Amino acid sequence: MRSVYLDNAATTRVLPEVLDAMLPYFKDYYGNPQSLHRWGDAAREALDEAREKVAALIGGQPEEIIFTASGSESNNLAIKGLARAQQAKGKHVVVSAIEHFSVLNSAQTLEKMGFEVTHVSVDRYGIVDPEEVARSLRGDTILVSIMHANTEVGTIQPIREIAAVVKKAGVAFHTDAVAAAGNIPIDVKTLGVDALSLAGNQFYGPKGAAALWVKKGTRIIPLIDGGVQENGRRAGTENVPAIVGLGKAAELARLEMDSRGRRLTTLRDKLIGGVLSRIDRTVLTGHPAQRLPGNASFCFEFIEGESILMLLDQQGIAASSGSACTSRALKASHVLISMGAPHEIAAGSILFTLGLDTTEEDIDYVLEVLPPIVDRLRQMSPLYARFVKAQAGRS
Amino acid sequence: MRSVYLDNAATTRVLPEVLDAMLPYFKDYYGNPQSLHRWGDAAREALDEAREKVAALIGGQPEEIIFTASGSESNNLAIKGLARAQQAKGKHVVVSAIEHFSVLNSAQTLEKMGFEVTHVSVDRYGIVDPEEVARSLRGDTILVSIMHANTEVGTIQPIREIAAVVKKAGVAFHTDAVAAAGNIPIDVKTLGVDALSLAGNQFYGPKGAAALWVKKGTRIIPLIDGGVQENGRRAGTENVPAIVGLGKAAELARLEMDSRGRRLTTLRDKLIGGVLSRIDRTVLTGHPAQRLPGNASFCFEFIEGESILMLLDQQGIAASSGSACTSRALKASHVLISMGAPHEIAAGSILFTLGLDTTEEDIDYVLEVLPPIVDRLRQMSPLYARFVKAQAGRS
């Protein structure tokens, strides 16, 4: 049976070049970067090099990079660390309704600490209106966090425009670019943001290495207290091999950004077009054009995403029904609900995320396998039976 | 030139068996453990297996293990998470004066949040007196955290006795066992603790994988908010390869604990005996018997640890002058100062930490190279010149 991995939003495969770059730091250069000897020096030089490569990916400076262990940790550090550093100025924070749970739940933790949080809404494509962000700002607003691209529906936000209204008000602006960084071009200076989260396992780097970029001069309170690592902003022995892998993945992503993007967009559009033409009562979720190159997300009316996933898995196809971080919670996606999808439609969401390994044959295979799966599930669906009956009654 | 790595307290080399266990999770089973397909299943099964192995190392249950990215993160989660979960009951926390900075600085963060912290002292061997812990307890004490073994001086605490007085008072007890776990036998049930931190890179596992064991039924507030990973207690994509490596390292440490310990103790005692007999005005720091098998730590009077380190490095020997987490801060160790060492003696501290790769020839080499280095530095030391002059005047 064919094996088709279309869950790159959950995590990507580590590229062989990335793993090769990492291996010496398990085998030979295993020192602690803080140690004062040649083993330490080798590890520290590797960190420095990785820091340069990660900074280059997003147009930042190496000393502005704080290495963390996951995109979620970067988001927690950003939301809690930036808000707490400025709480003397005010205690109001603005996020969008479709942020990742690492942002939403960090904001909720801030609420328990006495902060107030405003959630700005999105339109049916998942787009945040910069004007609505502007209207949400108050005299005591100290932080706005709007994601760069949404993992589940692929929608890319007008970050530059949002940042402009936020910066005009003198408020700090963070963007969760975990789904975007390494996949679409990002330049922190052009965007005008103060902090940006990214994660290596979203662009063919290893799990366990991520970063928060924080603009020079921006105060942040650490999430993990302890030693002097990361300039005192994130304690704990640095995960040298994973950080080296993140650096290598960032370098490759920067160099191959355009060609990867073009190829993925072509395959994605073939998948989207094929699905929409072959399966009726199907909606493409997210923005039709402002979307991540590898993201093809749909809602199939009358059926449940999880059932589709299981039947796809039986055919060797890996997909997702939303964010991997909550997939086992089996709740309707807060992203789709926020975009105005009724619960019964949001329940039928399926997310295909293409990656470097994806071939045209993979897409053909999905287009062959998926329609009969959807058909079969609809035949068993009471909702669908009712719909067919109603249609018949109307004609 | 010979290469002799005696900085295993800073971090250990990853064992080849450990790396071999990890590699398939970079190459083949690269899925996200939360995903609902075969790639996810494979990753999740690997996590489950690693969880069992880590639990077995310390006599805990798999579901009591929370995977984190570093010993520092485990300590932050324990101190902040346990204290915040119980703050309705009281806001007093007790730690020892010689804890790792990830414990001390987490306690300091609690102070900023309105908690009160008592630091119990240690004797000249670095031992905490259970009676002093008992006296430090108050009606509003909600958490005590005393480390199992100290990285810098190797002293092993009477954790069972300390836990007994703490538990008698109905207070939660955490122990930072980062330096101890995997190196000396630990059984959480016998110890009677409620939470215990450990880190894979302290026993030949990879950097980037650590754990906090929390006794079933103990409430803890997450440090990293977000997805449903680790039962909602630590969000972020699990670092599967590193966790698999941690599991393998835990399994090997459990099976080989006794033989490793005996071998290291013999080599350590040879090093300690050799150094003390060959170099005068030298003190063994830490407890002479209750110490980690691989730890040989000294203070050489009249000279600076950092100078010794640099000259040792020139001879191919890696050592440390204290905790790697603060080595670049070049301050006198808070551990030695708390043990009553005068600043000028604490400044001359050198820590050799032996590991599985250490051979008898390595020890012979150190015993050959170290005395002339100490001599040479003393010849350049104004403190030593003053001492020699005083000695001459006295005779």
List keywords for this structure.
about 400 residues; three-stranded antiparallel beta sheet; 2 domains; seven-stranded mixed beta sheet; alpha/beta; 13 helices; about 45% helix; homodimer; Aspartate Aminotransferase, domain 2; Aspartate Aminotransferase, domain 1
At a glance:
The structure is a homodimer of 395-residue chains. Chain A has 395 residues and is an alpha/beta fold. Chain A has helices at residues 16-27, 38-58, 71-85, 101-112, 130-136, 159-168, 188-191, 240-278, 305-314, 334-338, 343-346, 360-379, 382-394; strands at 4-5, 65-68, 92-96, 116-120, 141-145, 172-176, 195-199, 210-214, 282-284, 295-300, 317-318, 349-353.
Plain-language structure description:
The structure is a homodimer of 395-residue chains. Chain A has 395 residues and is α/β, with parallel strands linked by helices. Chain A folds into 2 domains: 4-10 and 257-394, Aspartate Aminotransferase, domain 1; 16-253, Aspartate Aminotransferase, domain 2 (3-Layer(aba) Sandwich), CATH 3.40.640. Chain A contains 13 helices and 12 strands. The first copy, chain A, has a 7-stranded mixed sheet, sandwiched between helices. Chain A has a 3-stranded antiparallel sheet with strand order 9-10-12. The first copy, chain A, has a two-stranded parallel sheet with strand order 1-11. In chain A, strand 5, helix 6 and strand 6 form a beta-alpha-beta unit. In chain A, helix 3 (71-85) runs parallel beside helix 4 (101-112) and helix 9 (305-314) crosses helix 12 (360-379). Chains A and B meet through helix 1, helix 2, helix 3, helix 4 and helix 8 of A and helix 1, helix 2, helix 3, helix 4 and helix 9 of B.
